[in-house]
Amino acid sequence: MTIPSLRTEAPTARPAPGAAVLRLPAPGPSFLTGRLLPRLRAVAARLIPPLITLGLILSIWQVLCMKPGATLPSPSRIWAEASDLIIDPFFVAGPQDIGLGWRVLTSLQRVAAGFGLAGVIGILVGTIIGQSVWAMRGLDPIFQVLRTISPLAWLPISLAAFRDSQPSAIFVIFITAVWPIIINTAVGIRNIPQDYRNVAAVLRLNHLEFFWKIMIPSAAPYIFTGLRIGIGLSWLAIVAAEMLTGGVGIGFFIWDAWNSSRLSDIVVALVYIGAVGFLLDRLVAALATLITRGTAAN
Amino acid sequence: MRAYLRLDHIDKTYHRGAVATEVLKDISLTINHGEFVSIIGHSGCGKSTLLNIVAGLTPATRGGVLLENREVNAPGPDRAVVFQNHSLLPWLTVYDNVRLAVDKVFCGVKARAERHDWTMHNLDLVQMAHARDKRPAEISGGMKQRVGIARALAMEPKVLLLDEPFGALDALTRAHLQDSVMAIHQKLGNTVLMITHDVDEAVLLSDRIVMMTNGPAARVGEILEVALARPRRRLDLASSQHYLKCRQRVLEFLYQRHHYVEAA
User: To the nearest whole angstrom, how far is the Cα of A232 from the nearest Cα of chain B?
Assistant: First the structure.
C-alpha cells in the first residue's frame, strides 16, 4: 500500500510548465445514435406488442376457419372476397355500391345530429336538476326509469311519431346519449364548491354570467365524462337502429350483407365500426383534456 | 371619525328540525371609516358566521347591518371578501380572476383600457403582476392569497372583509403578507374587518380588537383599543410595552376567562 506516499504527492494534477494540455475530441453522439434511435426504439416498444398479438389472433382465426365446411370465413378468404372494401373506403360504383367510408360518414352524420342535440339538452336539463332541489326530486326518479330502456325499444315509438326513418334514427341516438349527459352534468353542478358560489354572490353575477363563468367551467370534467359515455352509447345505438330503419349507413350495410350472405363484408364492416367508435371516444377525450385544462387541478 | 359600518343587535340561530342552535347573541359593533378592526375568538364561536352576515352571504335571524346608514342584506362588491382558502377560480389565470371582478364592478363606468390598467394596478399593489398569466394551481399558497386580496381591492369596496386570510399559510409567508396588508391599508385607508384566531396578528394589524366569548350564543366579550402609532414595524413592536400589554390582555381573555371548551 502506498497511501502515505500518495499524500505527499501534489493532490492536483497540473500540466507541467511548457507542456500543452491535449484535448481529445469528445465522441459526441451522432444524429442517428443520439436522437433517432431512442425515438425509434420507443415507437417500436409501443407498436410491436399489439402487432404481435394481432398476428397471433389472425393466425389462430385462420387455422380455425381453414377447415372445409367452416361456418365463418377465414382472414385469407375475407381478403379475397372483400379486398375492394378494405383497400378503398371511398369508392362509388353505383347508387347502392359505395365504399364503407361513405356509409360510415352517413351514420356519423346521424350521430352528430342526435348526439349534438343530446349534448345541448342534456347539459341544460342537467344544470336545472343540479341547481334546483325541486327539479331533482321531480325528475330524477323518472329519468332513472327511462334511462334503463333499451335504445331499440324507442324505435317503434319514434317511427310512429315522426313517420320517417331519418328523424327516428336521430331520435334513438338522442334518447340513448342524453341520460348519462344529464346525470353527470347534474352531479357536476351539485359539486360546485360553495366558495365559487360565494365569489359569484359577492360579484353579483347574474344567472347567465353564473352559468357561463362558474357553472360550466366548474362542472366541465363531469360534463365531459357524460359526453364520453354518451358518444359511445350513440355509436352502439346507431348501428342497431340502422339495421331496422334501412337506407344508407353502416348498420344497414351489415343487415344487407347478411341477407345476401356476404359474411366477409360483415367482418370488414365490424372492423370499421370498432375503429370509428375508438376514434370517437378518443376525440371526446382529447377535447376534454383541451378544454378542462386547469379546471380539475386546484 | 364617523360610524361607517354598524352591526346592530345581531342574533343568529340555526334551526335543524325542531332543534334550534343559537350561534350569535346580540352583537352590536360600530366601525369607523378607515378603521382596521379584528374579531378574535376560539374556533366555533361564530366569528366566521358574523363575517358572512356582514358580507350578506348568511342572513341574520334578528338585527341587521348598516353601511353608511343604509341597511345591507345581500352580498355585493361594496363588501368584498378575501376568503380563507383564496377561492380563486382555477380555470382562469391570475389576471382573469381579477379582471372578472373588475369587469363586473366597473362595467359601463370604466372603458376597456381603463379596466385593464386597473386590473394591473391592483396586481402591482400585491406584487403579483409578474404572474399575471399563471393559473392558480401554478402559484404558491401565499401568492394565491395575494391575488385574492387584489381581487377584493379591485372592487373598490367600502369595507374589506378578511376571513382568516392568512390561516392556511406558513409563519414566514404569513408575516410577509401581514406587512403587505398593513402597507396597503396605510396607502389606501380602507375600512377593514378581519377575522382571526392569531393574537399577534390581531394586535399587529388592528386599531381595535373585538374579543368574542365562546359559543353557543357568543357575544362581544371585550373591545380593546390598540393605540400603537402607524406605520407599525414588527421588530420595533417586539419590545414595545403597549404592544406587550395588548397582547397580554387578549391572551388573558382567550385563555383565562373564556378558555376553549371542547364541544360536549
Answer: 27
Q: Test B135 with A294 for CB contact under 8 angstroms.
A: yes
| Residue among B89, B139, B162 with most chain A CBs within 10 A, to mutate | B89
Residue B84 has pLDDT above 90, yes or no: no
pLDDT along chain A (298 residues), means of 10: 46 58 67 79 91 94 86 87 82 78 90 95 94 91 91 90 90 94 94 92 92 91 94 91 85 90 90 93 91 59
Q: B188 near B160, Cβ under 8 Å?
A: no
Whole-prediction pTM? 0.78
Cβ contact B90–A298 (<8 Å): yes
d(CA A174, CA B210): 60
pLDDT at A1: 41
pLDDT in tens, B121-159: 999 988 899 999 999 989 998 999 999 999 999 999 999
Q: Which three cell numbers stand for residue A210?
A: 353564473
Interface test with A, best of B49, B91, B149, B158 (most A CBs within 10 A): B91
Residues of chain A in contact with residue B87, where contact means CB-CB under 8 angstroms, are 195-196, 198-199
Question: Taking phi first (over 0 means left), then psi (-120 to 50 degrees means alpha), and beta for anything else, what does residue B189 get?
Answer: left
Find the helix or strand (DSSP H, E) in which B154 lies: helix B141-154
Put simply, whether B137 touches A (Cβ < 8 Å) is yes
